[in-house]
Amino acid sequence: MLQLDDLDRAILRLLKEDARLTISELAERLNRPESTIHFRIKKLLEKGVIERYTIILGEELRPKAVALVYIQAETPIIEDFLEKYIHYIMKTLSILPNVLAVARSGRDGVVALVGEENEEKLERFINETIKVLPTLKKIEVMPLQEFDKGRDLIGFLVRV
Amino acid sequence: MLQLDDLDRAILRLLKEDARLTISELAERLNRPESTIHFRIKKLLEKGVIERYTIILGEELRPKAVALVYIQAETPIIEDFLEKYIHYIMKTLSILPNVLAVARSGRDGVVALVGEENEEKLERFINETIKVLPTLKKIEVMPLQEFDKGRDLIGFLVRV
Prior knowledge:
Two copies of one chain form a homodimer.
Chain A: H1 6-17, H2 23-30, H3 34-46, E1 50-57, E2 65-73, H4 81-94, E3 99-105, E4 109-116, H5 119-130, E5 136-144, E6 147-149, H6 153-157
Helix pairs in contact in A: 2-3
């Protein structure tokens, strides 16, 4: 079982804010010796508490219009085919560059986060690429406007 | 307008995968002089193409049960109150630690990404904390199982 103490948590919080902070900057902020910080980060990486370091991309590269799409697959006559339908929908969506995330939802659903330059292109993408997928029963589009929490999500997911 | 060339994009892709790569490692992989890589990264930061560096937390700290919740606010008799309702719902959700993201959706909706240790706790949280919010008209819960794309989303959003 994973045991994190206050220092571990403080280090994680600071690195989440800015992973470019050096060992000596962290040591100064947390008022601990550099050797301690160094050791703790090493352990956090070894134990997989920190999975990896990454960058968040800025406003300009992010899609300006974003929506969540819930897709319900048709229930096939041969029930076993449902898995194939779901699998097909997920794979097809995943390879599209403007689909930022795809997850299974329940027995017969798929949720996708999609983004485009503007509302018009997003609507067209949903109508012309998603709604036409075979084996769909129902589709619900939830446009996302301002974020109140998790704002950087899009900058994290967007690809170049 | 933002102009990125192939080298910029290659640097961004590598840093997205692993932001701990050093200038000299990037230089070697991309077969360019270190000075070029250094200059490019400096520019990408200055222009805000790279917004910031962060860490992704591993499996153990992530909630095991995750769902998207779509909340539709009641339409008040005095139409102007709708903004207040929405604002109240978003603020209330945002301060909860197991709410990972909150966004406005359309005129009268809010979408939240919620996570808990297990299915049972997640259900209880949704029933006892979200469903009881006043001014709700409708709530739809979309549990999320395996991700096919954007898998690291939860490790990015989770707090310690």
